[in-house]
Amino acid sequence: MIVSLYSTKGGCGKSTLAVCLAAYWSQSRKTVLLDADPQASLSLCREEVLHVPVLQDTSKGIGKTIAKLAAEYERVVVDTAGYRRRKNTEALVHSDFVLIPCKPSPFDVREALEAVEVLRDIAGSKERKGAPLRYAIVLTMAQRTAVSARFREELEASGAPFMSAQIGQRVAFVETPTAGFPPEGSVAALEVELLAREIKRRLKA
Prior knowledge:
Rossmann fold, 6-stranded parallel beta sheet, 6 strands, alpha/beta, 8 helices, 205 residues
């Protein structure tokens, strides 16, 4: 299973969520984390605490890299660049599922909906060769406020694919790259688990 994180809006939690999902899946599946962002944010990750190999590839041949990793690992998590670039498209073409992280703000919602349009085009492209591409927006850094609830309702009303699971604004997520996956039973761990399970369900649908 190849899961990519995609958004051209910085600060939405894309890299953090990629790390959290990879760390979660590594507990039961052979998992690899691929950094496709030239900024190399994932270089901060401590592999010995995540128990996940962290590789980097920003080349034109990233599609071949992803295909090779998919043959070696049960889960491949790809963190794409936080801006528009041709190599992002190459990574998305080779994905099974694409998550679009979105903070509860008007700027992020606009960018997330634009990302959905990009993915719709990719899903119908000849490069996919008829293979289905699943994708959905996931609300990140959400709080129990009327503001978060309003933006969630706005996304749901847009008709764009939208995850039921959401990720809260928690210190544990910020610390994951260097401290490891949040403790078992914590709210942070539960949120990632629910998100991972929903991805699996949507892929089977």
